[in-house]
């Protein structure tokens, strides 16, 4: 039987936290640069929205690949290679003047994002086992920090260097410290689940409902971070520079919310946390929908980021309390999330100009309402097994 050490500390999570800063920097780059990429490729918003689809499709393939890889080989060398892949992809994205090659580069970027996301989450759960909840919130808090910094870095470097290519290159360089830290840190020993499925210890119904939740909810989160810039600018509520900082406000609020969720997750169960945060998120998006205004867009965006902050890692922790978390289970959940992140932003792109900017917020709100209902369904399902019972 392969086990992990019995007394992990916050230091054991540092390699994954460093990698997740890079994940946030890379994942949040598309939203605030979408209009610039549209201009560069001479495309309208409906056409350039395919970039969201490409990133999410690449992410889907990356999650499926990562789920199999981390179950079989030491994780840290894989993550180092993934970070190198992300750096190259970031350099390629602004390097083309046609939409086709740009779409391919964004798809490659998404593949690396999926690999890194699943790899870090799985390895961290294996490292901390039943105590993973607070550390997962910490991990996703760090993602929020990276996503908060990304539009600021892009805006500042673009303004100073006069080049979108230089801005993306700056993000690529910032991935190097994480790669170095992972390279010099031994991979955690794998926790084995070979017989869990055969013994019926994986709650397949719970995992299936959780997968639907990740599809619906992640679509809303991805659309919020990806379209808030264009919504604010096209609605006349902010300048282009202010729009970048509104995007940063969303991701900064996500980081703040996840920071404060760390001690909360240590005291309260995941299902109780979700029962509070999701209705609060619905209320926040309602503010943006029904009370539009230059000041309200800042306040509403901050509240939305703050209330959705803990949802993703808390749902992952909830699944981990009900069923064994293997790389394949994690890959399935993240693949479902990537499908949602692929579909909803694309759908918004198709209706944004015909129906107007506010249509984006209405669609996001509808997804958050459905997510709230799915959590209620999961809470009503009795636990069949503690996740730790499936360890062999």
Written overview of the protein:
With 392 residues, this protein is an all-alpha fold. The chain has a single domain (13-185, 199-390), classed as MFS general substrate transporter like domains (Growth Hormone, Chain: A), CATH 1.20.1250. The chain is built from 16 helices and no strands. The protein has helices spanning 14-27, 30-40, 45-48, 50-70, 75-92, 99-128, 132-161, 164-173, 176-184, 204-234, 240-267, 270-290, 294-308, 311-322, 327-355, 358-380.
Helix and strand layout, with pairings?
Elements: H1 14-27, H2 30-40, H3 45-48, H4 50-70, H5 75-92, H6 99-128, H7 132-161, H8 164-173, H9 176-184, H10 204-234, H11 240-267, H12 270-290, H13 294-308, H14 311-322, H15 327-355, H16 358-380
In percent, how much strand structure appears in the residues?
under 5%
Q: How many beta strands in the DSSP annotation?
A: 0
Gyration radius, to the nearest Å? Answer: 20 Å
Label the CATH architecture: Up-down Bundle
Q: How are helices and strands ordered from N to C?
A: HHHHHHHHHHHHHHHH
- State the low-pLDDT regions, or none: 1-5, 193-200, 385-392
The CATH H-level superfamily is MFS general substrate transporter like domains
What is the residue-averaged pLDDT?
83
Q: What is the overall silhouette?
A: globular
Q: How would you sum up the major sheet?
A: none
CATH class: Mainly Alpha
Total DSSP helices? 16
CATH topology descriptor: Growth Hormone, Chain: A
Give the number of domains.
1
Q: What gap, in angstroms, lies between the N and C termini? A: 6 Å
């Amino acid at each position: 039987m392969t086990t992990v050490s019995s007394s992990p500390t916050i230091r054991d999570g540092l390699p994954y936290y460093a990698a997740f800063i890079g994940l946030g920097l890379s994942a949040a780059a598309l939203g605030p640069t979408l209009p610039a990429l549209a201009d560069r490729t001479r495309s309208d918003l409906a056409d350039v929205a395919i970039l969201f689809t490409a990133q999410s499709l690449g992410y889907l393939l990356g999650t499926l690949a990562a789920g199999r890889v981390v179950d079989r080989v030491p994780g840290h060398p894989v993550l180092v290679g993934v970070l190198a892949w992300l750096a190259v992809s970031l350099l390629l994205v602004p390097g083309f003047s046609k939409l086709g090659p740009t779409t391919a580069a964004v798809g490659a970027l998404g593949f690396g994002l999926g690999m890194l996301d699943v790899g870090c989450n799985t390895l961290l759960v294996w490292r901390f086992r039943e105590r993973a909840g607070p550390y997962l919130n910490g991990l996703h808090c760090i993602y929020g920090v990276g996503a908060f910094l990304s539009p600021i870095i892009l805006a500042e470097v673009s303004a100073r260097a006069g080049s979108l290519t230089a801005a993306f290159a700056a993000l690529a360089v910032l991935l190097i410290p994480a790669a170095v830290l992972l390279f010099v840190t031994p991979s955690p020993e794998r926790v084995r689940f070979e017989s869990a499925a055969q013994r019926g210890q994986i709650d397949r119904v719970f995992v299936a409902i959780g997968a639907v939740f990740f599809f619906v909810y992640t679509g809303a989160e991805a659309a919020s971070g990806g379209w808030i810039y264009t919504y604010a600018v096209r609605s006349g509520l902010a300048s282009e520079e202010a729009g970048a900082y509104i995007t940063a406000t969303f991701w900064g609020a996500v980081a703040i919310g996840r920071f404060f969720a760390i001690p909360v997750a240590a005291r309260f169960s995941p299902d109780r946390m979700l029962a509070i945060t999701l209705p609060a998120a619905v209320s926040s998006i309602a503010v943006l929908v029904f009370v539009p205004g230059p000041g309200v867009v800042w306040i509403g965006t901050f509240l939305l980021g703050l209330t959705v902050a803990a949802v993703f890692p808390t749902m992952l922790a909830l699944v981990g309390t009900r069923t064994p978390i293997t790389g394949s289970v994690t890959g399935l959940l993240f693949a479902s999330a990537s499908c949602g992140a692929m579909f909803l932003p694309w759908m918004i792109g198709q209706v944004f100009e015909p129906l107007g900017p506010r249509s984006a917020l209405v669609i996001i709100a509808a997804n958050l309402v459905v997510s709230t209902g799915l959590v209620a369904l999961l809470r009503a399902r009795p636990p069949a097994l503690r996740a730790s019972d499936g360890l062999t």
